[in-house]
């Protein structure tokens, strides 16, 4: 079969490799689609730890081709999505239920072979069923959606809450939809691209703003602003200094800012502790998808989260290395690798 192999940092190529055989408790899955995420680019450049040689791709879904000994919950022909993050179950964090903070966390497509390939194998404990009549490409959105669900959970969004989302990429556009589903009545997106702002409005944002023109804090939280006093929950989904600094300032008194965006290890930003204290703003990180992948699969299956408009391009395996090596094209939201396609 064909697979996109990271041979070493900076060396990525499509290669013929042996088709995996499902071991005990494992599923062999024929990949229908696998999303290219910023993390894949960071791994290629050596900015995110991985274990090469390895097949990349951690946002995958497909059809069960074969099952290993002892697999009881899945059979060939079923459509599944894989939660790539495998916790050890035994470390102190795992034993406290904080599985995303596992000290030995391993991810499919990062530390072991992933979904930019014709087939991927995974433990059945990482798989979640999807309906047979689902669009075969939509399952690839379960992984990013599961990360956003964790962020929304941490934000404590309630019916009638207000929210601000900073950054209109896939994470921001999924978070907007989750915020509306959770009952937020007002959801403001800040992002530079006018096209993404328009798309966000069609997906549930009640207002949008460009970060560039004037003081964005005043334009949103000021007396005549889009959300006077700020939002109950702010979601940072851009991963840049500017939005990291804005996030707590855009939260209302007693509000929460959730950091989903990733900045380089060692990068620093300035915050005003007095402001956090005096306005009792809660600031929290949100890391991956603890126990949320099943909910993401159910949401995708239900069609309540719109993912079709987030697909910018679909490409075959042969085009994948180039798409990962280069930065995302202007305005691109999600590129899906479709092994069978094209
Ligand atoms: P993305 O496609 O790069 O989206 C980020 C968006 O931020 C861009 O579309 C950009 O859109 C916008 N942006 C850039 N500068 C901005 C600014 N100054 N103000 C407002 N918006 C700005 O990335 P993504 O896939 O959506 O992921 C977003 C972040 O979440 C990344 O850092 C990613 O690594 C991280 N992530 C975290 C988790 C987790 O578990 N916490 C999971 C997956 C991804 P415009 O051109 O419109 O400005
Ligand atoms: Zn652990």
TrEMBL record:
Signal peptide: none annotated. This is Iditol 2-dehydrogenase. Belongs to the zinc-containing alcohol dehydrogenase family. It holds the Pfam family ADH_zinc_N. It comes from Rhizobium pisi. InterPro entries: ADH-like_C, ADH-like_N, ADH_Zn_CS, ER, GroES-like_sf, NAD(P)-bd_dom_sf, Zn_alcohol_dh. GO terms for molecular function: L-iditol 2-dehydrogenase (NAD+) activity; zinc ion binding. Residues 8-337 form the Enoyl reductase (ER) domain.
